[in-house]
Amino acid sequence: MTSMGEIRVQPSGWFMSGLRYISQLQRRWGTRAPRQMYRMWRLHRTSFDEILENVFAALEPSDAKFAFPTVASVARMKPELARSIEREGHEVASHGYNHVRYPMLSEAGRERDLALSLQTYRKLGIDISGFRAPYDRYTEDMPRIIDKNGLLWDGGFGYQEEHREKTHFFRVESESGSLDTTFIPLNILSDDLMIDGRGWGRKEVTAALKTQVKKTASSGGVVMFDLHPIRMGQKEYAPCLGELAEYAQEMGGWIPTPREAVTYWSKHKRWKSDHGFCLLLTGDIDNWVFSDYLRRMIWRRG
Ligand SMILES: [Zn+2]
Description:
alpha/beta; three-stranded parallel β-sheet; 10 strands
């Protein structure tokens, strides 16, 4: 005779590997992993077509431009989305070929990933002038690698503490002199910090960004924000972009693509049409859909 108590349930293979997986993630992320995954799953319920539409629509009234550093292996999956960015007059930049921490790669690995991203975009017929490393993680050799690849601007190296507060573009020295690439300071206020980290709503996000813009207006320099479309392109937050652009213009600001801003500044050492300062709106695209996000987490490539 058997009773329920004697039945031993053998955990199946997928169940065990699932458990291993979760504990692996927890080791890396602590208890934030499940919550962050749930957040990303919720955000990805809005399709990226819609997210981009929302960003374009928010910026259209002020004709403000936006740059999207996009992971090249992701862009390759839906090239029509990347092309729609260009078609709307915005800019696509490289965010690496894979969304990996560059400091974890060898020097040759870093060079390979960056070069492969540029080659991928060339094949897609998408014009790339700028770069931002995944997770804003740089090594000391990166400025030289970026410069060697002929990139006009970089928008992530300037996130480091010693550059973040700068009010103007800056150059990086190498042994053989100043590199040609223009490096752009990146403001600390990102959407993940404000929305996920501090739990701010639309009003608080807009107010905080406006404060930074006001500060930039008085310096006559430039401010760049990383506002990921996955959050800022949601219906709830996209209006922040419109409000911010409108505010910056009222203050006399210019909101071009980084490509245009860097090209113009390099030549004239002032902002176009005598604008008082420059606002650069950018936001990385790491995945189009949740399953890509999940896959990256699973393979620990992110
Ligand atoms: Zn990223």
